[in-house]
Amino acid sequence: MLKVNNIDVYYGAIHAIKDVSLEVPDGEIVTLIGSNGAGKSTTLHTISGLIKPKNGSIIFEDKDIAGMPAHKIVGMGLCQVPEGRHVFANMTVMENLELGAYLRSDKAGIEEDMKKIFDKFPRLLERKNQISGEQQMLAMGRALMSRPRLLLLDEPSMGLAPLLVKEIFNIIKEINESGTTVLLVEQNANMALSIADKAYVLETGRIALAGTAQELASSEAVRKAYLGG
Ligand code: ATP
């Protein structure tokens, strides 16, 4: 579904992403793990069109989307969930969700998706008329309102209490089981590897390791560096 080929990304003189290639097969959960500053967010932002790569290609369902504007990419079915604090804080939960569907005009489909999202996230239903709240879940719900085929998630567990982290990972699994392909960026490597099919390890802007999630979870190098021994 997605093939990133040899991309390089610079912030001025800083070479943040170095010759990165990765693949996300249709229907799978692929995770990108790595420590702070490794370049995980930059990789996601480049795929979703917020940053332009200096070179390389990003093939989404047979089209090169590298350098295309972000709204065009969303319209093609690829949506990034930013960290939870990027929801619209002065709008209600419901208004935030409605905005997620701003490129769609199929009213019945939008209503149907809104119901599905409230089923998946009962916490959002309880707060649908409140100003914002449950920000991480709201950010995910809002992205789902664009009916994406590929969902990019940037550290969905960040800042959440352990119980909520479990809940979020269960929901990611459910979203995937109902047909959405997922590229998941996480610092919580344990949780990410437990739900992913494939995984990549990013170190200082380069892919250091790649394999099935099982292979990486049992690799000694990964255990030592990212799984607490
Ligand atoms: P984190 O989990 O801390 O967000 P990350 O793996 O997502 O880390 P990035 O945020 O992609 O890493 O950062 C990769 C590198 O690029 C880092 O060295 C960072 O300092 C640098 N960087 C990120 N954003 C910018 C920017 N807007 N301007 C300049 N340098 C940046």
Descriptive overview:
This protein is of the alpha/beta class. The protein is 38% helix and 27% strand. The chain is built from ten helices and ten strands. The strands form two sheets. The protein has a six-stranded mixed sheet with strand order 6-7-8-3-9-10, sandwiched between helices. A four-stranded antiparallel sheet has the order 2-1-4-5, covered by helices on one side. Strand 9 and strand 10 form a beta hairpin. The chain is globular. 41% of the residues are buried. It binds adenosine-5'-triphosphate (ATP).
In short:
The protein is an alpha/beta fold and 229 residues long. It contains 10 helices and 10 strands.
Blueprint (SSEs and pairs):
Layout: E1 2-11, E2 14-24, E3 29-33, H1 40-47, E4 55-60, E5 63-64, H2 70-75, E6 78-81, H3 93-100, H4 107-120, H5 122-126, H6 135-144, E7 150-154, H7 162-177, E8 181-186, H8 189-195, E9 198-203, E10 206-212, H9 213-217, H10 220-226
Parallel strand pairs: 3-8, 3-9, 6-7, 7-8
Antiparallel strand pairs: 1-2, 1-4, 4-5, 9-10
This protein binds adenosine-5'-triphosphate.
Class of secondary structure makeup? alpha/beta
Alpha-carbon Rg, integer: 17 Å
Quantity of strands, as a count: 10
Physical arrangement of strands within the biggest beta sheet? 6-7-8-3-9-10
Task: Based on Cα principal axes, name the global outline.
Answer: globular
Which percent range describes the beta-strand content?
Answer: 25-35%
Bound molecules: adenosine-5'-triphosphate
Let me know the largest β-sheet: 6 strands, mixed
- Number of helical regions: 10
Instruction: Summarize model confidence as the mean pLDDT.
Output: 93
User: Could you name the ranges where pLDDT drops below 50 across 5 or more consecutive residues?
Assistant: none
